[in-house]
Amino acid sequence: MKKAKKTYTEERESMVSTQIKSRGIKDVNVLEAMEKVPRHLFVPENMRKLAYNDEPLPIGNGQTISQPYIVAYMTEVLQLSVEEKVLEVGTGSGYQAAVLAEIAKEVFTVEIIDGLSKNAQEVLQEEGYTNIHFRVGDGSYGWEENAPYDAIMVTAAPSEVPKALQDQLKIGGRMIVPVGDAFQELVLIVREKRKFKKKKLLPVRFVPLVKPH
Predict the structure, then answer these.
(1) 66: annotated active-site residue
(2) Is residue 186 a contact partner of residue 153, using CB atoms and an 8 Å limit?
(3) Domains along the chain?
(4) In the list 29, 50, 145, 158, which could disulfide-bond 209, CB 3.0-4.6 Å?
């Protein structure tokens, strides 16, 4: 058992140095979080040997855990500080929530698929996270009771940015979201006093943002 744990630690360190640092991620908090969070615990057991590969992996229900670099990149773009409150739309495996929770004060995460949310809660609670709050529901409406948020991260792609999410940002708040259908782009949105400033960052491929049937 100890040997396997050491192997995962070495794989995680290698992932950070070869996939993340080498591509220009510099935020120390992000690098430390990526080095700390045990990614292999967030993938199905039969895929753990692939957990630290440079690729997204299926987690069931037609959903994926994002490529490690994209997790790090999206987290760095938000420029989180330790006193901030973050909304995550799309809990999925819970891995991104763990990375956010290593940096931010509180993470509110919404997932529409009940089974995924339950699995993520089990892993995250077992890992000792007490600053992550869970909700099952349509993430495109955010989580209004706890708004406004310093930052919002959307980990599935809507065809256009949901207005409810923009409205739940603080003045000066940041949101990162993949937008589009066949072609998707990662977009950074910053809320200013009277408007929202949008910046296109890079082409991506995310699963669509699931809507209720």
Answers:
(1) yes
(2) no
(3) 2-204 (3.40.50.150)
(4) 158
